[in-house]
Design brief:
By secondary structure, the chain is of the alpha+beta class. It is built from 6 helices and 8 strands, in the order αββββαβαβαββαα. Helix content is 39%, strand content 18%. The longest helix is centred in the first third of the chain and has 21 residues.
């Protein structure tokens, strides 16, 4: 065995533990207050994501809708808790101009198969399969924990972020998201986050 392999495994395990621990710190702050405003004028990253059927998409493809972009992974326990709620919220808020976009950060040669299998096992039917194949999105966002969520308004501006668990089915969270889906300008959307 190559001498660096045990070190790589240890580093991976430590990172996974840190992400799970760091995410649990936010468990007491899961409602609308979990969304923190980001600096004004920040545009959504221009990156290519791989879909479940092997096509390429960019975040700009959802311009005109408010996008809830959640960076997650199949190995992340907190992410797995959130995914059924994200699936439900995607269905419930579709008419409010909301697109829920979970982006898998899995680093596995067959990552798309992992994600599709996870969706099938858990009956997730309202979410697109998206994969950050080249770490393009995570490289620009640099999440400190999984899940990390970005709220991107209809004009392609990132207006808020959340780190860790969000209670997506909380009535206040749902109301905030519905309001964001109807916000016409970035200023209006930012005002909803900071109210």
């Amino acid at each position: 065995m190559k001498p660096w392999i045990p070190v790589a495994i240890a580093v991976f395990a430590a990172n996974a533990f840190f992400f799970e621990w760091r995410t649990s710190l936010d468990a007491d702050n899961p409602g609308p207050e979990a969304f923190q405003p980001v600096p004004a004028g920040l545009t959504a990253p221009t990156v290519t994501l791989l879909t479940g059927d092997g096509r390429e998409r960019t975040l700009a493809d959802w311009r005109g809708q408010t996008a809830i972009v959640t960076l997650w992974a199949t190995w992340c326990e907190v992410c797995r808790e959130e995914m059924p709620e994200l699936d439900r919220i995607a269905l419930e808020l579709a008419e409010d101009n909301i697109a829920v976009l979970p982006v898998s950060l899995d680093r596995h040669p067959r990552a798309l198969d992992l994600v599709r299998g996870y969706y099938d096992r858990h009956g997730l039917a309202n979410l697109p399969v998206l994969h950050d194949r080249d770490a393009a999105l995570s490289g620009k966002v640099t999440p400190t924990a999984t899940p990390t969520t970005l709220i991107i308004d209809r004009n392609g501006k990132v207006i808020a972020s959340a780190t860790g668990r969000v209670r997506w089915m909380d009535p206040k969270v749902k109301a905030l998201l519905a309001d964001l889906g109807h916000a016409r300008s970035s200023e209006d959307a930012r005002a909803l986050i900071t109210r």
